[in-house]
Fold this protein.
Amino acid sequence: MFHHSLVLSAIFLLPNKKGYKMNKTLLSFTVIAALSIGANAMEKCAQGKYGGDTKKEMKTAMTKSYYKLNDKGELIRPTDYRTWVYIGTPVTPNDLNGGHAAFPEMHNVYIDPESYKVYKETGKFREGTIIVKELVSVGATQAVSGKGYFEGEFLGLEASVKSKKDFPKEPGNWAIFTFSDMKTGILKDSAPVMPSDKCVSCHQASASDDFVFTQYYPVLRAAKGFGKGNPEDTAKRAIQKMKK
Amino acid sequence: MFHHSLVLSAIFLLPNKKGYKMNKTLLSFTVIAALSIGANAMEKCAQGKYGGDTKKEMKTAMTKSYYKLNDKGELIRPTDYRTWVYIGTPVTPNDLNGGHAAFPEMHNVYIDPESYKVYKETGKFREGTIIVKELVSVGATQAVSGKGYFEGEFLGLEASVKSKKDFPKEPGNWAIFTFSDMKTGILKDSAPVMPSDKCVSCHQASASDDFVFTQYYPVLRAAKGFGKGNPEDTAKRAIQKMKK
């Protein structure tokens, strides 16, 4: 529509032998149309309706929120998170924990891109940070590359949200939610805040940075307060320690 | 600049008591300015110079390439990949492999977002697919959550690229590169194609889908041929099997 209107307007402006001759009303209409098209384009861009690279996307989305509560105050199951910023995968499998691990799955953990950007620039988890933990079964334990742990099937989904506005009474303003239903294998569409003694208390006691286990997330440690660039673009890495 | 010009143009159009009165030359100028602003905005949007959500970004970036070779035909070290699409983390640690694992690190693996989108829609790895493997040391092996493997420090970086144009002689047109230097801990800025018998041959023999070990990457299995939406938005998950 945008494109068509521009072409139409351009035709009105084609010079003829007497120069730019144009009915005044038509001309006025064209100006208004062109301006409204421009304004519309600008608005759509501001709303993120057009494509953009990640950096610019982040710049224009400074206050974009990636979580939403329903009218019962439950977190609506996050979507599209497999394109958020991945931060790490801890694994504490059953076979290393007497057959009954507290967390037998592999956990793929993501942070929303805007909060990653803010963490990178300020070193803080912003108001509105959402971290998603996707539960994946341990699949193979033997491959051509050796013995170990390989991701199997998706099982569940959990999330934590930091918001003083929405969770003023939660420790650190972090609320944790689970959408998992291990019996049916069907995720819930929304989930209430988990009692803080079930999850948050352990995060409070043992996590390195504001209830987040950054000690196990090098992506976050590398990003914390890094600034505007991308930590992965620097060549410096750790030197491997030979343990055995 | 865009915004200022629009405001300026709008002032010219403010109705006065005699209606829309405006010098013809000025009016023509305004039309042209408004149109050029609109066209400029459209062009910038098409080029991805404005913010956008991921779906639209992908739509406009249909042919965007995420890898670049230098004049020696070496792959320039990829950048910004921690915001690409994460696909999985296999771990085959030393302590499960007699102290000498072939791949002792945890491997965080990412695919470029455009190739993820094409894989999601067509089920194929497109010409120009780049997959990056970030090598992370095994850090802690004991945490409050139990015994297991937790990511430590970044050690190295490898990549594979599928391109018939650039690698016509490689099996499956996949070329593999390593930027790692485990002695210095400093990644190389560019890397030559690895001899195909060092990596590609094993991928050819054992990987499930076109040299990629999708059997260990549920993100890719869920995405393969899924279509336009996001596989993670569906509620269906697997049901946990109790092994022990």
In short: Chain B has six helices and nine strands. Chain B has two domains: 2-58, 63-230. Chain B touches chain A through 116 residues (CB under 8 Å).
